[in-house]
Amino acid sequence: MIKHLLSAADLDVATATEIHDTAVEMATVSGREVKKLPTLRGRTVVNLFYEDSTRTRTSFEVAAKRLSADVINFSAKGSSVEKGESLKDTAWTLQAMGADAVVIRHPASGAPHRLTGWVDGSVLNAGDGTHEHPTQALLDTFTMRQRLGRIAGLNVAIVGDVLHSRVARSNTLLLHTLGAKVTLVGPPTLVPGNFGALTPDVAISYDLDAVLPDADVVMMLRVQQERMGAAFFPSAREYSRRYGLDAARMRRMADHAIVMHPGPMNRGVEITSEAADSPRSTIVEQVTNGVSVRMACLYLMLGGRA
């Protein structure tokens, strides 16, 4: 098993499949009266978050606690970081505390990679800038396998703000490794042509309606206004008209096709409530599966024993 999880590119088919298979076993824990395993008792997991996050930080915290690890939540707000402490000094503090794993979210792409040089424990990338979010890709592919029974051979449309999306990058890399075909869809300002270099066979389209009939999975992305320093489309109404998923567009999809979204959603912009809350939607399942997949990652990377 790999020591660090920094990029979806770190995962080959065997490793990703091992994580998925282990997550199936971990999912059974949530159905028990006592939702805990003793696997990581005595181990320390630090959640080091330099950006606000509810979904991902909580998911990692629940995952570590269900494995009986000691969990330390470190937020940049109200910490020594606001007094000017560097990432390197923070890392040395965590090292001195004996952290066995550090889960890091950071606004700078590459920060998790730098951290691996300063701590002895495992480093898990929980999102770095616009670069990657590998555990999100693992939980998304796990959800596809759960709903559709396979990943190889699927046609996956990733739709929206690809330019600013670490989820899109990680999913594109992992889906290629696992044998799925990816089409990136959105306005040219948010899906630049150079994204075709991400993997050998990724396709790019600027016409959502043309892509929908052949898609097995439609993954909608949040429009990240906070990362936009300029106008990337005329208006939210225009964006929604051309790239938003609504009930009318869902009728163009195959009967078996599913709708995904990593959250949080901008309802009424990239997705309507009809689409988000429909039986085709896996959005709630993705949150549930996130805990199981992160339990599997921590269990395998820290060498736990059942």
Automatic annotation (TrEMBL):
GO MF annotations in UniProt: amino acid binding; aspartate carbamoyltransferase activity
Domain named Aspartate/ornithine carbamoyltransferase Asp/Orn-binding: residues: 153-301
Residues involved in L-aspartate binding: K83, R166, R222
Signal peptide as annotated in the record: none
GO biological process assignments: 'de novo' pyrimidine nucleobase biosynthetic process; 'de novo' UMP biosynthetic process; amino acid metabolic process
EC number(s) per entry: 2.1.3.2
Designated name of the protein: Aspartate carbamoyltransferase
